[in-house]
Amino acid sequence: MPRAIRALLLGAATAGLLAVAGLGLHVRRNMGARRATLRRAAHRSPHAPGGSFANREPGLPRPDLTVRQLATMLLSRRPDGVPPAPIPLAQHEPRRERAALAATWLGHASVLLEVDGRRVLVDPVWSERTSPVPRFGPRRLHPPPATLAAIGEVDVVLLSHDHYDHLDRPTITALARGTGATFVAPIGVGAHLRSWGVPPARIVEGDWDDVVEVAGLRLTCLECRHFSGRGFRRNTTQWAAWAVAGPDHAVYVAGDTGPTAAHGRTGAEHGPFDLTLLPVGAYADLWPDIHTTPEQAVAAHVDLGGAVMLPVHWATFVLGFHPWAEPAERTVADAAARDVVLALPCPGERLDLSNGPRAVPDGGPWWRALVTPSSPR
Fold first, then answer.
1. Cα separation of 128 and 123, whole Å?
2. Does domain 99-369 have CATH number 3.60.15.10?
3. 206: closest CA among 229, 183, 227, 233?
4. What residue spans define the domains of the chain?
5. Please, where are the H alpha helices in 167-318?
6. Which CA distances in Å does 257 have to 75, 119, 159, 264?
7. Closest CA to 163 of 322, 282, 265
8. Strands 306-312 and 250-253, bridge-based pairing
9. Direct distance between the N- and C-terminal alpha carbons of the chain, in angstroms, rounded to an integer
10. Which tens digits make up the pLDDT trace of 95-141?
11. Are the C-beta atoms of 46 and 342 separated by less than 8 Å?
């Protein structure tokens, strides 16, 4: 073989190896802390026997499927799982004033809260995909309604658990550089943040029933029913809901949860709540105990003693098998039957709830304008 061709092949092989190595390093950084570091964190918790976190309630029965059947389901998702038209976004307007109680839904589980003058950014995810691998994994159905720079200064970045649709490395590192926020997370999640360069002094971790005071807010880490993990191992960090309480207002942040008796206990011990953020999408018979159905979410709101419910965890990423608008429609129907007040903003819309439930605008279900007569609801 001529020397020039050998050199060309060697150069191509070297470039390919470097590209693979670079991709591997990128994926590894996205995954976060090493297993040994996570195990050390887990040993600090009474809820992680043997270094693995667990729910207090046993798992619910689920159908037996082979890997092939599951792969077929994932590859043949319903076409109505995506919206038939572009999702409308409200224009974000930076504000200097801070409300006594306001919420801006930024899509999926990301919400900017204003609680008695403090700003709390919940589960912020700005990336295009929820995956450690570039160009792979669930892709956004709409762009973020505002840039992180436009969001401005926040007091607290509040995290519920370490799944990729709730904990996003590029977003976290941008917030660490661009704000002075304190990062509050369940135990173990802080190890991911430290591995990404967030200063340890700006990280506060809590386990179930722990209470932390940050920026004039009382944040209570609460039991929920879910799981965790950013790699092949599950349950390496804690998952949690949060009660966010200021001097005059309280908000319940569910994160991800399945149906659980913990909602009733939380309502009795920490309620009532002026606002609840509850997940209504990505439910399936395959995982009946880790994501609430819309009806279960409304029931949780009632158990929590909520005044206004903001449905989240829908519309932005395809993570289940149901039609795109079904979570919202089922939530509206069940809330009406239970006389529950819903806040239904489109992504990017800010709702000022300082004057209580009567301040909720009656804008109607915005998504119905996208659903054509032939599209199932």
1. 15
2. yes
3. 183
4. 99-369
5. 169-178, 189-195, 262-270, 294-304
6. 25, 24, 14, 14
7. 282
8. unpaired
9. 64
10. 778 999 999 999 999 999 999 999 999 999 999 999 988 878 899 99
11. no
